[in-house]
Amino acid sequence: MEDKTLYTITVFSENAVGVLNQITTIFTRRQLNIETLSVSPSAIKGIHKFTITTFSDSEETMKKLVRQIDKRVDILKAYYNVDYELVHQELALYKLSTDKVMEHGGIEYLVRKYNIRILEVTKDCVVFLKAGHYIETQSLFDELAEKIGVLQFVRSGRIAITKSPVERLSDMLAKRESQKLEI
Questions:
Q1: How does DSSP classify residue 43?
Q2: Torsions phi, psi of 35, nearest 5?
Q3: Are 31 and 149 in contact (CB under 8 A)?
Q4: Domains of the chain, CATH where assigned
Q5: Nearest CA-CA partner of 54 in 75, 74, 18, 78
């Protein structure tokens, strides 16, 4: 990913069938790969928030991508940001053999070093949860894979909020509502 920047695209829409397909089609046409994708209800009732990351070598490409997404009927608003404009996290789950973890003898070390939570311990397996940035969750995976062995691993898509005090969609919806009242 030399000379490419990771962008986070945030898309707001009503919960309508086919919105994800419309969005992914735009990425495909621009030959942009979706690195992570997370969809959830937003803080505004009835509105869903898509958080998508992609690499690009050009901010102009992101501007065009967001404009194309914005043109879709089911999309309320789309934005792009770079990392320093966001507070963001990923979640990762790691499933390990209980016997191997006990042989390693370092659960306390791992908990302290990586600030992980232990979600489950059975006679067969231990499940850890790690919240953090990609580099942190990957670093833990690398150490566990090398020293203990990982039975299963999954990482969520990025979840992110802007550092600005208000969700930008709230401002847009308020402006739209005031324009309706003026008419």
A1: S
A2: -80, -50
A3: no
A4: 5-85 (3.30.70.260), 87-155 (3.30.70.1150)
A5: 78
Q: How far apart are CA 41 and CA 45, in angstroms?
A: 8
Q: CB within 8 A of 47, min separation 6: which ones? A: 12, 13, 14, 41, 76, 169
Residues in the chain, total: 183
Q: 64-120 pLDDT, tens per residue?
A: 999 999 988 889 999 999 999 999 999 999 999 999 988 887 678 888 888 999 999
Angle between helices 107-114 and 134-147 (to 10 degrees): 160
> Which residues, in sequence order, are CB contacts of 135 under 8 Å at separation 6+?
none
- Six-digit token pair at 50? 């898509």
Taking the model in full, what pTM does it have?
A: 0.82
Please report which residue ranges of the chain form alpha helices under DSSP H: 19-29, 59-70, 98-104, 107-114, 134-147, 168-182
